[in-house]
Amino acid sequence: MKLCHFDDGRLGVVRDGSVHDVTAALTALPASRWPHPRHDPLVLDLERLRPALECEATSAPGIAPSRCLLRSPVPSPGKIIAVRRNYGRGTARPDFFVKATSSVAGPGEGLLLPLPRRRYQVEIELAVVVGRAGRSIGRDVALDHVAGFCIALDVSMAGREDRGWRKSADTFCVLGPWLTTADEVRTAETLGIELDIDGRPALRGATSGMHHDVAALLAAASRLVSLEAGDVLLTGSPGRQPLRPGAVLDCRIESLGSMRVEVAARR
User: What distance lies between CA 169 and its chain's CA centroid?
Assistant: First the structure.
């Protein structure tokens, strides 16, 4: 199943290139009261809700994705965990850092470069969405905790500030175009990755180049922090490219689809 978040709080199932509005199925989610849980209720209950989502999608008319404002398929992750230097030789242990959850945006919302005199870089990454909570997860069962995958753009700003701060500006974590559930991805370890900037090839790679695979990253991260449904793990990038206002980014990861993101400067 491919689930997208579009327009103003609408939930869609993507089938045969069309978006089918299944928002009505969300009434089955439990009511939330303060203090609100740290997990994403939809991701946590996804398997239980799946029959209702499929039923709604069958009866709902299809909408072209170009007519939808695609937002992040995970609107409010509890945590965004990213990893440095995970391609090529990598590091002996995963080198994790965190990004602010307020940096999340969808492809239809675009990417904003906030300070005109700074330099920026962009990386395209496989994003893993946690589906089931866990702590000190064993590598052999780590993939059982995955709800699905999506494409991520991880943006950084040059400077002397802390890395997490320079990577946490608004829109610096673009997720999309939708959440592809784990059962639709045969393996996350051999997916082709492509990024074009202004119509020209900028990055080419594959997840087979990861030094630490998805299971190893989840196991290592969960030794220190409890993972919750809806948390996002960024798995690293095969490279990075400079970024400027006005650029158009075309992003593709095999089995997950493609998305176009426009880059603007803060006015």
Answer: 16
Show the tokens assigned to 119.
Answer: 């330099």
How many CA atoms lie less than 13 Å away from 117 in the CB half-sphere?
Answer: 1
The CATH H-level (homologous superfamily) assignment of domain 71-265 is: Fumarylacetoacetase-like, C-terminal domain (3.90.850.10)
State the DSSP code for 209. Answer: G
Residues 176/153, Cβ–Cβ less than 8 Å: no
CA-based end-to-end distance of the chain = 38
- The tens digit of pLDDT for each residue in 200-238 reads 999 999 999 999 999 999 999 999 999 999 999 999 999
Token pair for 2: 């491919």
Three-state helix/strand/coil letters over 61-109:
CEECHHHCCEECCCCCCCCEEEEECCECCCCCCCEEEEECHHHEECHHH
Name the pTM for this structure.
0.97
Closest to 234 (Cα-Cα) out of 164, 157, 136: 164
> 246: phi > 0 → left, psi -120 to 50 → alpha, else beta; which?
left
Which of 73, 16, 18 minimizes the C-alpha distance to 43? 73
Domain boundaries, the chain: 2-67, 71-265
